[in-house]
Design brief:
The chain is mostly beta strands. It has two helices and ten strands, in the order H-E-E-E-E-E-H-E-E-E-E-E.
Length: about 190
């Protein structure tokens, strides 16, 4: 695996197991379980077959986060959508309500959603005034039928760097951020 596009293919249809936001360090940690046929790290230490396919995707520094949590119900009067607000501390519990639902792809490279595109208002919104965390995007979308209707979560983030780790913290993949001078060639000495 050599690119974010490859990572997108690995995570296509993966189960979303967890999602956290650390506002102090501006990091989103998302835990996924890719399907067996898409998991590219087939052997672990000592060429032992991997039985735990969970991966943690860390994106940082996050400059923008937008979230929409809503429930759509159908009744005699037609379809009705309720929007729920939540805080970054409640994000873990919100994702737990989706019971490992499969994520929709693509996850990376999508444009920032326009106000009103997911719902009339954001459930969660945060923006940093720092100048970094703007070169890449992540959009996590999951749906879950729970007997009371369809529960939907869409979460968008802007960031620069991505790391993927296995359950033991071993680095599996990383794409460093780009700085303002990366476009320039160093002068020969």
């Amino acid at each position: 695996m050599t690119s974010i596009e490859d990572l997108d293919r690995v995570l296509d249809g993966a189960a979303l197991l967890g999602l956290e936001l650390d506002t102090k360090f501006r990091v989103i940690a998302a835990t996924f379980e890719p399907t067996p046929e898409r998991y590219p790290w087939g052997t672990g230490v000592g060429s032992v077959e991997v039985v735990d396919r969970r991966v943690q995707v860390l994106v940082s520094p996050v400059s923008t986060i937008l979230g929409s949590l809503r429930r759509t119900t159908t009744a005699d009067a037609g379809q009705r959508t309720e929007v729920y607000t939540f805080t970054e501390e409640q994000l873990v519990d919100v994702v737990a309500a989706f019971d490992g639902a499969d994520v929709e792809s693509p996850l990376f490279g999508q444009p920032e959603p326009r106000p009103g595109s997911w719902a009339p208002e954001w459930s969660l919104e945060g923006r940093s005034t720092a100048g970094d965390g703007t070169s890449r995007t992540l959009t996590v979308s999951v749906r879950h039928e729970d007997g009371a209707g369809e529960l939907a979560l869409d979460l968008f983030a802007r960031f620069d760097e991505v790391q993927v780790k296995d359950p033991f913290g071993t680095d599996l993949f990383a794409v460093p951020g780009s700085g303002p001078l990366d476009a320039f060639e160093p002068r020969p000495s």
